[in-house]
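Subject: Interface between my chains keeps coming out wrong

I've been trying for a while to get a sensible model of this assembly. When I model each chain on its own everything looks fine, but I need the whole thing in one frame so I can look at the contacts. Pasting all components below, labels as-is. Any help appreciated, I'm running out of ideas.
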Amino acid sequence: MNKVVFGIDVGGTTIKCGFFSDDGELIEKEELPTRKENSGENILPDIAEYIKMTLAMHKKKFTDIAGIGIGVPGAVRDDGTVNKCVNLGWDVVNVPKKLSELLIFPKEKIKAGNDANVAALGEYWKGSGKEYSSIMMVTIGTGVGGGLIIDGKPINGFNGAAAEIGHMPLVDGLDFACNCGKTGCLEQVASATGIARLAGTKNAKEVFDRAKAGDKDMEEVIEKVCSYIGKGLACAAAIADPECFVIGGGVSAAGDYFIDKIKKYYKKQAFHPSIDTAIVKASLLNDAGIYGAAKLAL
Amino acid sequence: MNKVVFGIDVGGTTIKCGFFSDDGELIEKEELPTRKENSGENILPDIAEYIKMTLAMHKKKFTDIAGIGIGVPGAVRDDGTVNKCVNLGWDVVNVPKKLSELLIFPKEKIKAGNDANVAALGEYWKGSGKEYSSIMMVTIGTGVGGGLIIDGKPINGFNGAAAEIGHMPLVDGLDFACNCGKTGCLEQVASATGIARLAGTKNAKEVFDRAKAGDKDMEEVIEKVCSYIGKGLACAAAIADPECFVIGGGVSAAGDYFIDKIKKYYKKQAFHPSIDTAIVKASLLNDAGIYGAAKLAL
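Reply #2:
Try treating it as a single job with all components included. I did that and got this:
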């Protein structure tokens, strides 16, 4: 009998749970609400309960588990300690230790990682990045985040801030601050929020829809946004030089229209050895996190 | 008897040779001219001859060699193959294989790497970077190059172009091209050549000397240059997030005056988790390459 692995992606609203065979086949997935009240004290017990129930339903035992991986929206130290995860209400929580106590399961088999890095690992393992030796995932949604995987290993950075491509100071002339407190971050023009703000529309989807329908003003906004994203990728390539960029997040739903423009501006600005770096759309969408979390534990 | 290791740094003008104990103590160093004529065919034989002579003088045998490391000014594949190194006149050369044949020494114990990455490894091992888990070395000389070391391992990049911080497209409004063919590279304003061009002086040293003596125009140039370097480091930190930046190359001779201004502009532009990343001056100077090459082979 093959072993199984759990991949859990803890978000601010829901906990996505994946139950996998150890060769990476998704057997079943489920979503739980993220109960953030009381400093998020129910989050890990809810996950433990889900794991016990799933094993029972599938007539599996704890000894059948190859590992449990968990992605959380915050910086995670190598030992799995999360330091003040605002999105979950957590103070300092050592995820493997706590979950190990709840499940009476060896903590060495429980791994935790930052959600963006974990999603990148998912795309690298089973998604659009699977043919490449190294990828940088760029998630363009409400914010702009990322994850860097080199030779199968997530690069977290000394401060857990590697692949934070959205906070490169690349935009001159802005007169308002980024969520991070600085001014001039790529995220301020390249996120869904930023795109809508530049265009004066309700949301980024409207900008793309109108641009695709031929609205010149909206086209101009998209060109400007893609020029900045191209610059960001060119800078990222000059530092990490991945084999492939994987573009994910809600805005990537704009598809080839968006990806092709990013490619155009990347090629204009990239250092020549890296000019042919692949730029592809993410394929696992909301499941990238559970795949990556599972891989983390294998 | 302890083993010995050779660290060789091949430059366009001279070949720097270091003879080390295997705990990294420099026993002796020597410089040979780089004979680039006839497609650089003498370079590796000259190195082989130096190694034989040095062993003879110190009454050591080939069996006493722990390894031989070589840094070359070009992209180097994992197997030690150098593909068209213009600075040496080389076409395609597999350095470990060729040197192994010349010395009748196992090629597995001969390692080759890009000179900038090798210098970074030297600073990481025995120089200013030795107290840090990860460093990015930034070499500011005729050009602006760099090397990235994470957990003791050089990160070369898929195209051998990682840590090429000088070719990030960060400068708007330039009307002339970089050596690489693009326009807007950090190197165009931050290299020794770039600094002198901005200031209209003979060389970068004059700009620093006059600025330190109170020349307002020269001070303004230095502020501008350091603002761009600070932006470059902030972008690099948002991608690789090293624990420390090590600033080397000829321009770093300007000392704390220069480093302090870089720090000031870095802190203004860096993403907050990385705002306290150390920025220090390189300490091994021209010996970084031989130290790093030796480490590569250990």
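Reply #3:
Confirming on my end. Residues 130-282 of chain A form a domain with the Nucleotidyltransferase; domain 5 fold (CATH 3.30.420.40).
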